[in-house]
Structure formats: structure tokens, C-alpha cells
Specification:
The chain is an all-alpha fold and about 80 residues long. The protein contains 4 helices and no strands.
Length: about 80
């Protein structure tokens, strides 16, 4: 069942932009707000644990591929 919420103290400029967007999309302001909320809530945010796991795999894969000397040489070659 849908729930009602009340939003107070919306700055005038934000309200006017929201109102214009609602008119452009042929929606009520309420419907426009719901569309924006859905976009935010349903966005594809990555799980931090997945990011860490992937970073660890990449680190392990790259481990030992260059020596400290090779890294320093590459740095030195890039300097004027």
C-alpha cells in the first residue's frame, strides 16, 4: 500500500524547477517527485564488498609483474 510523506521548506528555486519538469513530462509534481525518488533508490550502486574483492583480485594479478627498479626507471624516463 502506498505511503504518504510531506516535504517541508522546499526552496522556491527547486520547487519551480520541479514544477517545470513535471509540466514538460505531463505529470503532476507528486508524480515527478516519485519518478526522481525511484531513479535514486533503484540506481545501480555497487556493493562495497564487491568493489574490495575485485580490487584484491586485480592487485594479486598485477603483483610481481614489475620490479621496483622497473617502476623507478619508468618514472625517471617520464621526467624532463
Amino acid at each position: 500500500m502506498p505511503t504518504n510523506i510531506t516535504i517541508r521548506d522546499i526552496p522556491d528555486d527547486i520547487y519551480e524547477k520541479l514544477k517545470r519538469q513535471a509540466e514538460l513530462h505531463h505529470r503532476s509534481i507528486n508524480s515527478e517527485v516519485i519518478v526522481y525518488l525511484k531513479k535514486i533508490v533503484q540506481s545501480h550502486r555497487r556493493d562495497p564488498d564487491q568493489i574490495i574483492t575485485r580490487a584484491k583480485k586485480l592487485k594479486e594479478k598485477a603483483k610481481g609483474s614489475l620490479s621496483i627498479e622497473q617502476i623507478q626507471e619508468a618514472i625517471d624516463q617520464g621526467r624532463p
